[in-house]
Amino acid sequence: MSKLMQNPVFHELKKQASIFIKEKIKTARLAVTDVTEEELLTEEVTGSALSLIDARSMAVITKASFEVDQFQRIVKILRQRMLMFDRREWRGMYNTLTMLNHLLINGPLSVFKEFQHEKEIIEDVITIEWIDEKGFECGLKVRNIAEEVLKLLEDETFFKDERERKRKQSFGRITGFGSSSFVIHSETLSETNKGRDGSFLSDHQTCENDCNVDDHPFVEKEHNTAKLLVSSST
C-alpha cells in the first residue's frame, strides 16, 4: 500500500469528496424528480454506509409517515431493502429493521398490517449467518432487532400494548428531561446492543465475539409525539 493511501489527510479528503458528490446527487434528484427529502433520508439511514441511525432522522421519518403519500414512499423503501438484502451487508438490514421497529412503536398503526408479508423474511434474518468483509460473524445485533420486530408483528395485542407502554415512558421522560428523541433511541440501542450475558457490545465487539393514516384515536397523539420528537432534537 502506498504512503499516500495510508495518509489520514488523504482519507479525509476522500471522505469529504464523497459527501460532496452525494449532496450534489441528492440536490439533483430533488430538482428533477418527484422524490421527497424524507424519502431520500429513509434511503440514507437504511443503507449500509451508516453505522447507526441518529434519533433525529428517525423522528423526521416517523413524522412524515403520518402523511399518506410519504407513508407509501417510506414503506416501499423499507420493503425493497428487506427483499434485496445481502448477508455481507449486515448494517443495511440492521438499520432497516431498526427504522421499522421505530415506526411500529411510534408511527401509524397501519405499519403493522403493511409488513405482515415480510415476517418470513425476518424469520430468515434470524437464522442466517451474517459475515462481514473481514470474515466476522455479525449476526447478534441483526438477530436481536429482528426478534424484536417479529414479536411485534406476530401479536397485534402485544404490538398495541407495547406502543402504549413506550408512549407512556416517553412522555414521562419528556417531562423529566426534555428530550424524547434520545429516550426512544437509547431504549432501542439498549436492547439490540446487549450480548448474551446482558453486557453492552460495540459494533466491533458484536461482530468479532459473535464470529394510509389510520382512523384511530391514537393517531393525533402519535402525530403530536412526532412533532415533539423533532422539536426537542433541534
Structure, described:
By secondary structure, the chain is mainly alpha-helical. It has a domain at 14-169: Alpha Horseshoe (Serine Threonine Protein Phosphatase 5, Tetratricopeptide repeat). 73% of the residues lie in helices and 0% in strands. The chain has 13 helices and no strands. It has helices at residues 3-6, 8-32, 37-45, 55-64, 68-83, 90-106, 110-114, 119-127, 139-154, 156-177, 180-192, 203-209, 217-233. Helix 4 crosses helix 11 (180-192), helix 8 packs antiparallel against helix 9 and helix 9 (139-154) packs across helix 10 (156-177). The N and C termini lie far apart (43 Å).
Task: Report a brief summary of the structure.
GO terms for molecular function: clathrin binding; phospholipid binding. With 234 residues, this protein is mainly alpha-helical. It is 73% helix and 0% strand.
Question: Which labels suit this protein?
Answer:
Serine Threonine Protein Phosphatase 5, Tetratricopeptide repeat, 73% helix, 13 helices, 234 residues, mainly alpha, clathrin binding, ENTH
